[in-house]
Amino acid sequence: MMETTMSETETADLEQFRNETRAWLEASCPPEMRKPATSDTDVFWGGRNAKFSSEPQRIWFERMRDKGWTVPDWPKEYGGGGLSAAEHKVLRTEMGRIGARPPLSSFGIWMLGPALLKYGNDAQKKEHLPKIAAGLIRWCQGYSEPNAGSDLASLQTRAESDGDDFVITGSKIWTSYANYADWIFCLVRTDSAAKKHDGISFILFDMTSKGVTTKPILLISGYSPFCETFFDGVRVPKSHVVGTVNRGWDVAKYLLQHERAMISGMGERGVGRPLGQIAADSVGSDAQGKLDDAMLRGKIASFDVDEAALAACAERAVDLAKAGQAHPAFSSAMKYYGTELNKRRYEILMSAGGVDALEWESERSRQGARPRAWLRTKANSIEGGTTEVMLGIVAKRILDLPGA
User: Fold this and answer.
1) Is the distance from CB of 347 to CB of 339 less than 8 angstroms?
2) Distance of CA 104 to the CA centre of its chain
3) What is the pTM of this model?
4) How far apart are CA 181 and CA 104, in angstroms?
5) 67-71, 159-163, 233-237, 280-284: least confidently modelled range
6) Which residues form the Acyl-CoA dehydrogenase/oxidase N-terminal domain (predicted)?
7) 335: number of CA atoms within 13 Å, CB side?
8) CA atoms within 13 A on the CB side of 333
9) Cα–Cα distance measured from residue 112 to residue 106, given in angstroms and rounded to the nearest whole number
10) Most exposed of 105, 187, 218, 328 (fewest Cβ within 10 Å)?
């Protein structure tokens, strides 16, 4: 009888939370923040030099920050909302219902934060997590190197011991937004004599440190979100190592689960317009209001089903993770499916646009937004772990296939 009463009480409390959350979001989220972002500059990344693209963006961020809802499920002591798994799910659902944008985009939230919560010491958590939650620091990731991409453990950026410091020398590549970042979470080799997975440490340092330089990499899309990053004798206190020295691979693997889950999210439509509506802008509709191209209509219908399946799978993955039951390799399956789905989305958009979709510079095409985005998706199956690597992990860790 007690269990039934508790269950009913919990259900009632959650329903009250839903009603309060719905009312607060309706009153607090500006209409402009209920529309999809149109470009990277329309997303708020935070950081020391951050600027808001609009007044509604500032209002929305500050209101959510003050509630602790930039990181709703983090402990309140670190600037989070302290929400339970069920409450966080309600918040996500209610934000999705009105199309509310995330108030803050951050590698600190998506990747570093979870790693610090699991492996960081008290001082590191108190130093970095509140700043991440408040959007005060923008982070970048120092993993891949010119000769250590898919085989990440072959990295050669070295950190040599010198008293209370490490002196870091080497380079990283494909460092997303390194030229805008304030700090970096970085993998370095602290023991060159150990087996390649055993001599790596996970360390944090300021990008304004002496000896750090960045060089943007221009992509085929005409944009440059990636950089080469160089370290020339960068001095970093040993206290900045997260976890144990030479055991950074444990932290790196855990963080990669969150990175791949984050990347898989690009396969979901989110708050954007449905694909069929976008296609109808170019192709038109028949007398019954259906998309006036049967083959394209079929492709979109198939895509919509797969997109819905990914969304359901992502929701399940979140629930399993909150319950501590997630398979560590499941994020690899999600990453593969999400990135391939996003590539399909833009192939359909290009088909729907016909020759107009090939416009690169005209005002009509918004400076070639569609073909540039289409070209950008080609990197989806490389970044965060290649499709081949993801399928290998699934074969070995989930399917347990012979010889995998």
Assistant:
1) no
2) 11
3) 0.83
4) 15
5) 280-284
6) 11-135
7) 29
8) 15
9) 9
10) 218
**Cα distances (Å, whole numbers) of residue 98 to 53, 225, 298:** 21, 30, 28
Residue 84: exposure state from Cβ atoms within 10 A (0-12, 13-18, ≥19): middle
Q: What domains appear along the chain, each with residue ranges and CATH number? A: 9-105 (1.10.540), 139-248 (2.40.110.10), 266-398 (1.20.140.10)
Tokens of residue 28, six digits:
């607090």
Residue in this structure with the two tokens 């929305």, named with its chain if needed:
60
Note the pLDDT of residue 329: 84
Own/partner contacts of 276-281, CB < 8 Å, gap of 24 or more, are 276/300, 276/304, 278/349, 278/352, 279/348, 279/349, 279/352
d(CA 148, CA 259): 18
CA 98 from centre of chain: 22
The two three-digit tokens of residue 277, written as one number: 């509506």
The kind and range of the H/E element at 303 are: helix 294-322
Nearest CA to 174 out of 384, 388, 391 is that of 384
Q: How far apart are CA 252 and CA 196, in angstroms?
A: 13
**CB-count burial class (<10 Å; 0-12, 13-18, 19+) for 212:** middle
Q: CB-based burial of residue 322 (10 Å sphere; 0-12 exposed, 13-18 middle, 19+ buried)?
A: middle
Cα–Cα distance for residue pair 350/279, rounded to 1 Å? 9
CA angle 120, 124, 130 (to 5 degrees): 110
* Helical packing angle, 294-322 and 248-264, nearest 10°: 140
Band (268; pLDDT cuts 50, 70, 90): low
CB contact at 8 A, 261 and 328: no
Angle at 214 between CA 208 and CA 215, to 5 degrees: 160
Contact of 243 with 202, CB cutoff 8 Å: yes
**What does the mean pLDDT of the chain come to?**
89
| Helix (H) / strand (E) containing 200 | strand 200-206
Separation between Cα atoms, residue 12 and residue 1, nearest integer Å: 17
Q: State the residue for tokens 């929701």.
A: 315
Task: Report DSSP state, residue 284.
Answer: -
Interatomic CA distance for residues 44 and 41, integer angstroms: 7
The residue to which tokens 């011991």 are assigned: 161
Q: 265 is written with which tokens?
A: 């999210």
Both tokens assigned to 129: 């997590």
DSSP 70-83: TSTTS-GGGT----
